[in-house]
Design goal:
This is tRNA threonylcarbamoyladenosine biosynthesis protein TsaB. Pfam families: TsaD. It comes from Yoonia vestfoldensis. This protein is of the alpha/beta class. The chain has a domain at 6-97 and 149-164: ATPase, nucleotide binding domain (Nucleotidyltransferase, domain 5). It has 4 helices and 8 strands, in the order E-E-E-H-E-H-E-H-E-E-E-H. It has helices spanning 38-52, 72-89, 98-106, 150-164, and strands at residues 6-11, 16-23, 26-33, 62-66, 93-96, 110-115, 119-124, 132-137. The strands form 2 sheets. A 5-stranded mixed β-sheet has the order 3-2-1-4-5, with helices on both faces. A 3-stranded antiparallel β-sheet has the order 6-7-8. Helix 3 packs across helix 4. It is globular. The protein starts with 5 loop residues before the first strand and ends in a 30-residue tail after the last helix.
């Protein structure tokens, strides 16, 4: 990571809008708790953070984004915003999972994050950098490594993303560990009239 990297990172995979502005060795974080409405809140929040530092979007070297796991719709909001900004600004976008931030913050080779229905998602970080993801049932059997605040996670996400700027990384994509909870529509498909 260049010493003067300027990067904005954000994540909406949980019940909040979290963002970090990395300015060289300084990180400014903001976490706005919210159960819904992240899609409408995200861009104005990021704009306010940039304006408060006298920056514009063009002043950034890149964009970091949380890829999950987490809320299905929330992940799509962040990843879509990051990919759109990257395309429009001609800047790189880098995806970072909550597993990666948790591993960096905890220093553990195996991390666990809470999942719906009293399950947990585990990821092992092996010597070949091949992650293994598997859902586990029963929270009592898992020592969670997510005891870090959303501000700590988003700050760590910004640092990881900045370290990847200029590397050969794919475009950010959502990390879904399981299928969405949404049920198929019960209504009949619409009829198209001639």
């Amino acid at each position: 990571m260049p010493p003067k990297t300027r990067l904005i990172a954000f994540d909406t995979s949980a019940a909040h809008c979290a963002a970090a502005l990395l300015l060289g060795d300084r990180i400014i974080t903001r976490v706005d708790d919210m159960a819904k409405g992240q899609a409408e809140h995200l861009m104005p929040m990021l704009g306010e953070m940039l304006t408060a530092q006298g920056l514009t979007w063009r002043d950034l070297d890149g964009i970091g984004v949380g890829t999950g796991p987490g809320n299905f719709t929330g992940i799509r909001i962040s990843v879509s915003a990051a990919r759109g900004l990257a395309l429009g600004l001609g800047k790189p976008a880098v995806g970072v999972s909550v597993f990666e931030t948790t591993q960096q913050l905890s220093g553990r080779a195996q991390v666990a994050v809470p999942a719906p229905r009293d399950q947990a998602y585990l990821m092992d970080f092996d010597t070949e950098a091949k992650p293994v993801i598997r859902p586990l049932t029963g929270l009592g059997a898992v020592a969670f490594s997510t005891d870090h605040s959303p501000a700590a996670h988003i700050g760590c996400l910004a640092q990881i993303a900045a370290g990847r700027i200029g590397g050969d990384y794919p475009r950010p994509t959502p990390l879904y560990v399981r299928a969405a909870d949404a049920a198929p529509a019960r209504d009949a498909a619409p009829v198209i009239l001639p």
